[in-house]
Prior knowledge:
- The protein contains 9 helices and 14 strands.
- By secondary structure, it is an alpha/beta fold.
- Bound molecules: zinc ion.
- Zinc ion binds at residues 56, 58, 61, 115, 134.
Amino acid sequence: MTMSIHQYLCLTDNYGVLVHDSATGATACVDVPEAGPTLAALTERGWNLTDILITHHHADHIQGVPDLKAKFPEAKIWGPAKDKTRIPFLDRELKEGDTARVGSLGANVIETPGHTLGHIAYHFDEDDVAFCGDTLFSLGCGRVFETPHAVMWSSLMKLAALPGETRIYCGHEYTQANGRFAVTVEPGNPVLKARIEEVARLRAERRPTLPTTVAAELAANPFLRAEQPEIQAALGMAGAEPAAVFAELRGRKDRF
Ligand SMILES: [Zn+2]
């Protein structure tokens, strides 16, 4: 194992992440909400930026890229082929099943449309780590802006199918607010209750609640649990298609 990961806060609730390969010295950042904290994190670690991995086109994920590229002109910028017109500075355009390389580390690209049309996740399968941007959050998921809800549901199911031990890094620290909604649709889930208590403790100490894991989310995140009878009953949708239950959940969370 040669991968080290450093997660740091940007803006108010965004996360930036550095991925370092000790075998080659290569270092990537995943999304750039702002250049300052990313540069500070690189300096603090003594790491040299070689790659920038972009999950999606929203400003709070790419706006720091030009300043960062100015400091590290050799860094390669990887991102979704489907959004190349909205992320005009890509050096490498990625599609489903492609591999993004950070030194000796390899990330399998998973297309996860929904939050945006071109959204992708990076799964470093040998290291059991996935960077999911704004598709999957702990106890929640991204807002569905650019596809029908059924498409977002399919994207979430792709992430849910990763090995349970996979560590999931997300674009935002939203877990506590997500938990407040989750408990309204599945109040009888003891795993969810325990997670909400853990999150309250962590946030009281201003500590991150991320990364999470696939297994932890499958046990507590209502947006991955649309087939659960308690959730369906809470929505008055017993026996409904999971994608339809997901759409109702997402709509209620949007209005919560
Ligand atoms: Zn976004």
